[in-house]
């Protein structure tokens, strides 16, 4: 079993006075090709864990290895580059750039990544359009985020997350701002993309219905992993 990421003895303490121990000695392994859900109540440390695993935040102590690279040993600049070349991100409130159209939002990761600096703009546009088509949202290519529904914005966000062909996509409450129908559709899209592309997805959620679409569920409470289930789907 090939590992995408692994964390050992991870601790995260916020603040010095009245400090909060958000993660208490977490060990976790993320397997290549899986959809992993991290499930737990509000405040249990899910976002903190995701941010430490993706290198968006630094743990207080413990080790994080992603794609065989030790994040602790990278500078912030190296981590930024590593993220842009190997990871995709999906957020609860989509985080699209409001002054860019759907198409321009999807083009952005290719425009800013050094890895793709040789690609001509016409090729970037074509690739972004193909991604919008794959996610059945190409008819809104020229729309701005404020002109799109939540479900539409999240499709655009997925296209943006996948356009660089990342090894792993980190999704923080990706269905949190969607209704039941759109949440189900989103999880369908994630399953399809996982099957078609082999991309590993790590999804943080408080919603058991969302988690049950994952191959594996890790349960968290009060900064600890309290259980794990592997499912056949
Ligand atoms: N920047 C911060 N400064 C201080 N405390 C923080 C900070 N971020 C998170 N915390 C605290 O750390 C704990 C874990 O928070 P975290 O956001 O990781 O939980 P969560 O499970 O993702 O919650 P939610 O589902 O509500 O987003 C909480 O007690 C929270 O108040």
TrEMBL record:
Keywords: ATP-binding, Nucleotide-binding, Transport. Signal peptide: none annotated. PROSITE patterns: ABC_TRANSPORTER_1 (PS00211), ABC_TRANSPORTER_2 (PS50893). One of its GO terms (molecular function) is ATP binding. InterPro entries: AAA+_ATPase, ABC_transporter-like_ATP-bd, ABC_transporter-like_CS, MacB-like_ATP-bd, P-loop_NTPase. Residues 5-233 form the ABC transporter domain. The keyword Iron-sulfur does not apply. Belongs to the ABC transporter superfamily. PANTHER family: ALPHA-D-RIBOSE 1-METHYLPHOSPHONATE 5-TRIPHOSPHATE SYNTHASE SUBUNIT PHNL (PTHR42798:SF7), LIPOPROTEIN-RELEASING SYSTEM ATP-BINDING PROTEIN LOLD (PTHR42798). This is ABC transporter ATP-binding protein. The lineage of its organism: Bacteria, Thermotogati, Thermotogota, Thermotogae, Thermotogales.
């Amino acid at each position: 079993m090939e590992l995408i990421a692994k964390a050992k003895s991870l601790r995260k303490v916020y603040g010095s006075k009245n400090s909060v121990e958000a993660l208490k000695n977490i060990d976790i392994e993320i397997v290549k090709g899986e959809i992993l859900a991290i499930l737990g109540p509000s405040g249990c440390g899910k976002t903190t864990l995701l941010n430490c695993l993706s290198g968006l935040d630094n743990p207080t102590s413990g080790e994080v290895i992603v794609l065989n690279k030790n994040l602790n040993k990278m500078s912030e600049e190296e981590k930024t580059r590593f993220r842009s070349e190997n990871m995709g991100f999906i957020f609860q409130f989509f985080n699209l750039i409001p002054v860019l159209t759907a198409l321009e939002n999807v083009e952005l990761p290719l425009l800013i990544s050094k890895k793709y600096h040789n690609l001509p703009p016409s090729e970037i546009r074509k690739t972004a359009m193909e991604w919008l088509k794959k996610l059945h949202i190409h008819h809104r290519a020229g729309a701005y985020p404020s002109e799109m529904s939540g479900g539409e914005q999240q499709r655009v966000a997925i296209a943006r997350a996948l356009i660089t062909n990342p090894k792993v996509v980190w999704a923080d409450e990706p269905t949190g701002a969607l209704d039941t129908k759109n949440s189900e559709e989103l999880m369908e899209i994630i399953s399809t993309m996982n099957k078609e592309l082999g991309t590993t997805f790590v999804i943080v959620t408080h919603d058991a219905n969302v988690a049950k679409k994952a191959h594996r569920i890790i349960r968290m409470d009060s900064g600890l992993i309290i259980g794990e289930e592997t499912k056949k789907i």
